[in-house]
Design a protein that fits this description.
By secondary structure, this protein is α/β, with parallel strands linked by helices. It has helices spanning about 5-15, 35-45, 65-75, 105-115, 115-130, 145-155; strands spanning about 20-30, 50-60, 80, 90-95.
Length: about 160
Amino acid sequence: MHKSSNILKLLEALKENTYKLFAFEMKIYLNFSNLREYYFQAVSNSSWAHEGYLVSLNIEEDTQFIDELRRLNNAFGIGIIKLNPEHITQSEILFSAKTKEFLDWNTIDRLVNENSDFECFINDLMEDIKIGKIKSNYDATLKDDDVYSYSKSKLISNR
């Protein structure tokens, strides 16, 4: 596979720095009936990153379900986060993601060629690494009060 020049530059930049890339798959409710579908979406959609997480507002609290989450985490390395939309810093990491030492460069290259949003993300990331600071426009980072207001306006609740 032929990698674009920006992908090769990113590969070189990430070899020399301690950057870590994360991917998050967000869902409203996680239970036995949707677990396989949602979990493997997270596996697939985070294959390019150092760590991948499945994040949900509501997670079934059944012991067997939690055991299944643990088994999947051990087998595939996707972490699980229970999101608290009212107090984001109180969100709970139920299972940490396993960190991949190396990125999947073939997947990154394919995604850059297939997804213009991902290509923009990679280009912004490259520019920020090159200048040594964040100047690009990534997703906004909200303070707790702003997250609560946003969650309330969108009728997002974990209750």
